Amino acid sequence: MSRCYSHLTLADRRRLHHWVERKVPINEMARQLGRHRSTIYREIKRNTFRDRELPDYDGYYSTVADDIRKERRRRLRKLVRHPQLRELVIEQLEALWSPEQIAGRLLADGVCTVRVCTETIYRFIYCKEDYALKLYQHLPEGRRKRRARGSRKPRDGAFPAACRISQRPDFIGDRSQFGHWEGDLLIFQRDLGTANVTSLIERKSRYTVMIKNQSRHSRPIMDKIIEAFSSLPAFARQSFTFDRGTEFAGFRALEDGIGARSWFCDPSAPWQKGAVENTNKRIRRFMPGETDLTAVSQRNLIQLARHLNDQPRKCLDYRTPAEVFMAHLQEGR
After folding, report:
1. What is the per-residue pLDDT across 90-109, written as a single tens digit (0 to 9) for each?
2. DSSP string, 27-55
3. Spatial strand order in the sheet of 180-186
4. Which cellular components does GO assign to this protein (predicted)?
């Protein structure tokens, strides 16, 4: 018998229904299902159909037993039995608190005698009875359907250890050499379409390049970068540092197309490419998340990048990125 407990399924109940009709002993039922005899005894006792008006129809029926089990679990849910707690959870979800924050704060404050875990809140959000409230819209990801645990594929295969930022040479990190870039993807509201913008910043000069994309597929994004940088001399496009987003999984195309190496931040460490993150904040002043990219052309992005590149920077001794970038190009030639 397995030590890992799992609930009886509808298929198990169908087998039980046939055995009950044949009056098979409970010990034999338990043996064939690989369960403890108490599990079978409780199942038959709790989920047997009984009707005072029609006693001839009393008995254990698989589908009816499954419906009885579902109804009992629905009634026993904490956020059904405690309406005040339910309203408090809804209020905090609407305030954009995560389920983990809600559960942790309720426990820390001690204002509620009923303990609610994160999983309970997630089940409440996605259960059929309360799905019409659309509470999933208040979650950070806003998914209509809950993703199974462990369904997210690890990205270590897409980004090999040899390309980790820890392997990147020090002269890139300390900005002592020209021609090393950082890249990121600016995403906008989903209901406005799949268009997005690639932002690229040269680390030493802080020179900005912006490219409009029609999708988040990696290869078209890489092709746009190759097209934009192919006119530069090789010393001005030596490497790119990205995060581990799937949109950069086709990074090998950069090496084949323009001979540029690619480096990748550690998981959940966007601060390791701080130059582009800081520039993204500047871009968001002009292009917030609700911007409709269908009304923004590549020419508009070039004009915005020119505006950013013509602003003096304290880190450049108040020279502009454009001035420093052009000076390095001329020195290299």
Report:
1. 998 998 888 888 888 888 88
2. HHHHHHHT--HHHHHHHHHHS-B--SS-G
3. 208-213, 196-202, 180-186, 239-242, 261-264
4. cytosol
Which tens digit of pLDDT belongs to each residue from 238-268?
Answer: 999 999 999 999 999 999 999 999 999 998 8
**Total length of the chain:** 333
Which of the listed CATH numbers 3.40.50.12780, 3.40.640.10, 3.60.10.10, 3.30.420.10 matches domain 161-332?
Answer: 3.30.420.10
Q: Which pLDDT does position 195 carry in this prediction?
A: 93
Question: 118-126 vs 83-94: helix axis angle to the nearest 10?
Answer: 80
Radius of gyration over every alpha carbon of the chain, rounded to an integer in angstroms: 30
Q: Report how far residue 91's alpha carbon sits from residue 290's, in angstroms, rounded to the nearest whole number.
A: 25
- Sorted by where each begins, the domain ranges of the chain are 10-75, 78-138, 161-332
Phi-psi region of 23 (alpha: psi -120 to 50; beta: other; left: phi over 0): left
Residue 58, both tokens? 């009393």
- Write out the two tokens for 11: 């298929």
Q: For residue 67, count other CB atoms closer than 10 A to its CB.
A: 13
How far apart CA 78 and CA 124 sit, in angstroms, is 9
Q: What pTM, to 2 d.p., does this model score?
A: 0.57
- Nearest Cα neighbor of 48 from 30, 66, 33 is 66
